């Protein structure tokens, strides 16, 4: 576990009143997740494109 690369990488962070919106990427699958952190419970959901499909980064 220690010394291994991180599974989730933060690719974007944006502040708003009372918290943060973060986009995390799963380094193994490339799937992006929207994470809402604020005064209430934290929420996480897959980030979808305009066709309703998950946003996936493919590294060459």
Q: Your description of this structure?
A:
The chain has 60 residues and is an all-beta fold. The protein has a domain at 8-46. The chain contains no helices and four strands. It has strands at 8-16, 19-26, 32-38, 43-46. The two termini are 26 Å apart. The model has no long low-confidence stretch (mean pLDDT 90).
Summarize the structure.
The chain has strands at residues 8-16, 19-26, 32-38, 43-46. The chain is mainly β.
- Going by helix content, strand content and strand pairing, the class is mainly beta
The helix/strand order is EEEE
The portion of residues assigned to helices is under 10%
- Give the strand tally: 4
Give the overall shape.
flat
Distance between the termini: 26 Å
What is the percentage of strand-forming residues?
over 45%
Q: Largest sheet, order of strands side by side?
A: 1-2-3-4
Individual helix count: 0
